[in-house]
Design brief:
CATH architecture of chain C: Orthogonal Bundle
Number of strands of chain A: 12
Radius of gyration of chain C: 25 Å
Chains: A alpha/beta (about 450), B mainly alpha (about 325), C mainly alpha (about 300)
Number of strands of chain C: 2
Structural class of chain C: mainly alpha
CATH topology of chain C: MetI-like fold
CATH class of the largest domain in chain A: Alpha Beta
Strand content of chain C: under 5%
CATH superfamily of chain C: MetI-like
Oligomer: heterotrimer
Helix content of chain A: 40-55%
CATH architecture of the largest domain in chain A: 3-Layer(aba) Sandwich
Number of helices of chain A: 19
Number of domains of chain A: 2
Order of helices and strands of chain C: HEEHHHHHHHHHHHH
Number of helices of chain C: 13
Shape of chain C: flat
Distance between the termini of chain C: 24 Å
Chain lengths: ~450, ~325, ~300
């Protein structure tokens, strides 16, 4: 039977060919051919990769005995690969870290204290944008991350849409808000909302059930931090997440200020000024809403500046969030940092790379790429310049930091558990099936987790 | 995949309209019955449902990212552009890619393609072969613990994925196979319970008469395996080979874990660049759709090639 | 067993006495597969079961806690919700998928022998779970998706396919049916091919109708393959993850929080691997029971042909 021989022969050939091919693909190993030490650095933002590659090139030039190998993995894969890497001892030397993850890593002894390493022991953390470095100090005073960049939240809009409504950018720059009647902010939102018949939200005969353009784009329910969703509302009532800036032990979701802010925000749905959950789901796409003309104002973070700028047909404008009862806008203040893995075989060399990452040199290179706002003021300047060259005004984002109109991202233990608890509940509140007052009980549950 | 040829030993070809699956289509004109019309209607509906999303992918692949949101229900490409495909093949510079909403990571397309081919081919060849051997043991050989051991293999079908991920990764690490193609191939190289199960069901159905004839002639059971069972199961074997190939080709998470550099990066992992890279930004839609279509192409080709080649002579009363 | 007067036959390699005992040969034949089984399935399984009795955060040594995880699990409303949601999903998914796949397989066999047709039908399987989910997320978007656009033109209400509690699971089930129906159809088709035409001839000669042939001959002879297909599909369906993670991530409000999602969240999101292992063991047990019944009911272990 020909088939037998042919089948077996094919299989055998395939195996042979494969093995031969394999012989040519032996793994590289982490040591370089010469004696230089190779440092593995991981990040997730592909847009920043070219800038960091330039940093690496400059670093290698200044340190000929070191090589930096940058790997980029998308956000979704990044943390799982990192975790698997930690488990098997196959992780990076240095990696971009996030405020929600680092407490967990620090707790398990996976991060090195930068104060213990020669190259980073004497860094002046005051030279970064104010407060950023403090976000990365552990409970016993260890410095777990070298600040990298920061972000704040503001309002994006399409100038064409706004002028068509008879408003000017100046009008939008100076809004006030309060949780009781929404202030001038709600009036503007109402005015920008248009129903299917062309009737505006503040005119007679407005039909909230048939809206064509929503005044405010939906960011979903915001989960436990509401960074772009409601933190800029609750924050401007003077509310804070926890009892301390960092490492708080008590959350304040039972505070009526945050509850009323949430109530106001999700109340916009009934008034027809914001899209219902049904339309946007668990992962809304506000830039899509703005780009398609479905929404007029979109609150989002400075890291999205480039994405919004790419929307065709949109003449992008940026306004600060409205001023609340405290008298000025408040934005959540978040910052990424670079951490060193405790499993690295080359801690001192890794520290040299991290020190360089936190230096003016590198941060200016990153700023010039015009993607994010680096943590060093020199870098921030470079970024604002780069944005200005593209016709984008990033001053709104940096002004709030300068004027200290910020609210720290909540850094506490048990982020995963708290988030898993809060997110479905916040979704429920958004949908309208749950009352904001139930957050008081939830708050007790969360505080229980922190004990 | 497997063509049915006419059973050579089929006696008279009775005209009765739609009963025989293996009757020669040449000489008769099929009568158009309501049953046939309905059948074709259903088939066409199924094809439409199957293919519409592909059309959508093509249309999106040929659009520009920035314009997609503005006209999202348009059936034609929005702001036509080859950008998506260019990014897939690594033909755009970083600046261009980022400007068009792509990720700017470099893609060495042909290298990744080669890696995928090597991994999928070797895994398929070994896995199918070893699984066929085991399937034979579970279906045509008689031995005391046959059913018990088969039950154990069946049990492994149900092992939760989360149990195997980390131990396998640690093992690959300890064997020094991180960032190698062999490391990627290793877990699938020996068998999958599915392949064994599948082939065993078919081997069970192979007629015993031919086998007994061979045994009486003095052939060993090993001979029977190679000369009778395998040739008579070319259809199922080809099926499982193709499915294994596809599964290995499309595997994403495990190769992602194992590979650290381009040396061992396979196509699916490389094309993961088109997913959302940062939280809250969307994926590079044009690039992602283009990548999907391009990644599926080799397998469609493979399928077409093998489907024609492998003639399944099911009507085996022919002792050929 | 000696050949009577024929020239000496090539030695039979199997056990000399007891001509039907192929044990040694069988062990040889299952050897490579067994290596794979033990190293890549069995050992992780045993280790996983052990971990379910510990508290382990992946990065420090595991601590034995006995039945604590199981006790917590039984009292965990999220767990029971996950089981309920997953069961609902499996029933819808498998029910729809098997019927559709059967129809496709029969059509493929009877209507047309075109290879092109078969390639097209298999095409959805070539798309990864994640991409398929993304494409449907777009197509079925409440506001911007063409699916809802069509509904509106037809005069119907828009449906929040992924955003309403009633539709989330059915929609995800249908997305996976789309992806797997060709693949399942291919498996069933292979089974159809294995039915000797002589059976159909005999039926025809006896004057049986299409339908009668189908239920009386095709279906029973398909049993081993159908049994396989059902078992495999159900096992895969229970472990649905990618599609849910990409589209609804468990929402709206736990309506699609399937078991595997909960397990992953506990393991990688909250570093509670001991508990995640216990949840996985629970899933394993459910699968074992379900498979056992399926195996028995479809009598997938026997064939009617020999």
């Amino acid at each position: 039977m020909h088939h037998a021989r042919r089948t077996t022969a094919t299989l055998a050939a395939a195996v042979a060919a494969g093995t031969l091919a394999l012989a040519g693909c032996a793994g590289p190993g982490t040591a370089a051919a010469d004696d230089s030490v190779v440092l593995d650095y991981w990040l997730w933002d592909a847009n920043q990769l070219p800038a960091y590659q330039r940093c690496a090139d400059e670093f290698e030039r200044q340190n000929p005995d070191l090589q930096v190998r940058i790997s980029q993995y998308g956000w979704n894969d990044y943390w799982r690969k990192l975790t698997a890497g930690f488990v098997a001892g196959a992780g990076p030397d240095v990696f971009t870290d996030h405020l929600t993850q680092y407490p967990g890593f620090a707790q398990r002894g996976l991060l090195l204290d930068l104060n213990d390493l020669e190259a980073t022991a004497d860094v002046d953390y005051g030279g970064f944008q104010e407060g950023l470095a403090d976000l990365w100090v552990g409970q016993e005073g260890s410095q777990y991350g070298m600040p990298k960049d920061f972000d704040t939240v503001a309002l994006f809009y399409d100038t064409n849409v706004v002028t068509d409504a008879g408003l000017t950018p100046e009008d939008l720059a100076d809004l006030d808000w309060n949780p009781d009647n929404g202030g001038s902010f709600e009036k503007v939102i109402a005015h920008l909302t248009v129903d299917e018949n062309g009737v505006r939200g503040d005119e007679e005969g407005f039909d909230p059930g048939n809206v064509a353009v929503y005044g405010l784009a939906s960011n979903g329910s915001g989960g436990m931090s509401g960074q772009t969703t409601w933190s800029w509302l609750a924050g401007t009532t003077g509310w804070t997440f926890t009892d301390k800036d960092v490492w708080g032990t008590e959350y304040h979701f039972d505070d009526p200020r945050v509850q009323k802010s949430l109530e106001w925000l999700f109340g916009l749905v009934d008034k027809g000024y914001m899209a219902p959950y049904e339309e946007v789901g668990t992962e809304p796409n506000p830039q899509q809403a703005l780009g398609s003309g479905r929404a007029a104002l979109s609150a989002n973070g400075s890291w999205m500046l480039g994405t919004y700028a790419n929307l065709e047909g949109v003449d992008l404008g940026i306004a600060p969030p409205p001023s609340g009862p405290v008298g000025h806008p408040v934005s959540m203040y978040n910052g990424l940092a670079d951490s060193i893995s405790a499993q690295t075989p080359d801690p001192e060399e890794a520290a040299r790379w991290v020190a360089f990452l936190g230096s003016d040199d590198c941060q200016q290179l990153v700023g010039e790429a015009g993607v994010v706002l680096p943590a060093r003021p020199a870098g921030t300047e470079a970024a604002v310049e780069a944005f200005r060259d593209r016709g984008l005004d990033a001053a709104v984002f940096t002004d709030m930091v300068e004027k200290k109109q910020t609210l720290f991202f909540p850094v506490t233990e048990q982020f995963g558990a708290i988030d898993a608890l809060m997110t479905p509940m916040m979704d429920e509140i958004y949908i309208g099936d749950r009352d904001v007052s139930t957050l008081t009980e939830v708050n007790d549950q969360i505080n229980g987790l922190l004990k | 995949m497997t063509e049915t040829t006419t059973a050579p030993a089929a006696p008279t070809t009775v005209p009765a309209s739609d009963a025989a699956p293996a009757a020669p289509p040449r000489r008769r004109r099929r009568r158009v019955t309501p049953g046939r019309v309905l059948a074709w209607a259903v088939m066409i509906l199924i094809l439409l449902v199957t293919l519409f999303p592909f059309y959508w992918m093509l249309r999106t692949a040929l659009s520009s990212n920035g314009a997609l949101y503005a006209s999202s229900t348009s059936l034609l490409p929005v702001d036509f552009s080859w950008g998506g495909f260019e990014r897939v093949f690594g033909l755009q510079s970083t600046e261009e890619a980022i400007a068009q909403g792509g990720s700017g990571a470099s893609i060495d397309f042909w290298l990744y393609l080669r890696n995928s081919v090597v991994v999928a081919t070797v895994v398929t060849a070994c896995q199918v072969f070893f699984s066929a051997m085991a399937a034979y043991a579970f279906s045509r050989l008689r031995w005391r613990w046959r059913d018990a051991v088969f039950a154990v293999f069946l049990l492994s079908l149900m092992v939760p994925v989360i149990f195997t991920l980390l131990p396998n990764f640690v093992l690959v690490r300890e064997l020094g196979l991180i960032d190698t193609l062999l490391g990627i191939m290793l877990p699938g190289l020996f068998m999958t319970p599915f392949a064994i199960f599948f082939l065993r069901q078919f081997f069970m159905n192979v007629s015993t008469e031919v086998e007994e004839a061979a045994l009486i002639d003095g052939a060993s059971k090993v001979r029977v395996f190679f000369s009778i069972i395998i040739p008579m199961s070319v259809g199922p074997i080809a099926t499982i080979a193709i499915l294994t190939y596809i599964g290995s080709w499309n595997d994403y998470f495990w190769p992602l874990m194992v590979s650290y550099t381009d040396d061992s990066r396979v196509l699916t992992v490389a094309l993961g660049n088109f997913n959302a890279q940062t939280p809250q930004t969307g994926p590079d839609w044009a690039g992602l759709m283009a990548a999907t279509l391009v990644a599926a192409l080799p397998m469609i080709l493979l399928f077409v090639v093998f489907a024609r080649r492998i003639v399944n002579s099911i009507g085996f009363s022919g002792i050929k | 067993m000696a050949a009577p007067s024929a020239p000496p036959a090539p030695p039979v390699r199997v056990g000399r006495v007891g001509r039907r005992d192929d044990t040694r040969l069988a062990l040889l034949f299952i050897l490579p597969a067994s290596i794979g089984l033990v190293v890549f399935y069995f050992w992780p399984l045993v280790r996983g079961i052990w971990l379910s009795f510990t508290s382990w955060d992946l990065l420090s040594p595991a601590q034995f806690v006995g039945l604590d995880n199981y006790r917590a699990m039984v009292a965990d409303p999220v767990f029971w919700n996950a089981v309920r949601v997953t069961l609902l999903y499996v029933v819808i998914n498998i029910g729809l998928q098997t019927v559709v796949a059967l129809v496709i397989a029969v059509l493929m066999q009877r209507l047309s022998r075109s290879t092109l047709l078969r390639s097209l039908v298999l095409a959805p399987y070539l798309v990864s779970n994640v991409v398929a989910a993304l494409v449907f997320l777009w197509i079925l978007d409440f506001q911007l998706g063409i699916g809802n656009q069509v509904l509106e033109w037809a005069g119907l209400e828009r449906i929040g396919f992924f955003t309403s509690e009633a539709w989330a699971i059915p929609t995800i089930a249908m997305v996976n049916v789309w992806r797997h129906m060709g693949y399942t159809a291919l498996l069933i088709f292979a089974g159809l091919q294995a039915i000797p035409p002589t059976m159909y001839e005999a039926a025809r000669v006896d004057g049986a109708s299409e339908v009668r042939t189908f239920f009386g001959i095709t279906l029973p002879l398909l049993r081993p393959i159908l049994g396989l297909v059902l078992i495999i599909s159900v096992i895969g369906s229970f472990q649905v993850f990618d599609t849910v993670a990409v589209t609804t991530n468990g929402g709206p409000v736990d309506a699609s929080r399937v078991l595997q999602l909960y397990i992953y969240d506990k393991a990688f999101g909250q570093f509670d691997f001991g508990y995640a292992s216990a949840l996985s063991v629970a899933m394993l047990l459910i699968l074992v029971v379900v498979t056992f019944f399926q195996y028995r009911m479809t009598r997938a272990g026997q064939t009617d042909l020999n």
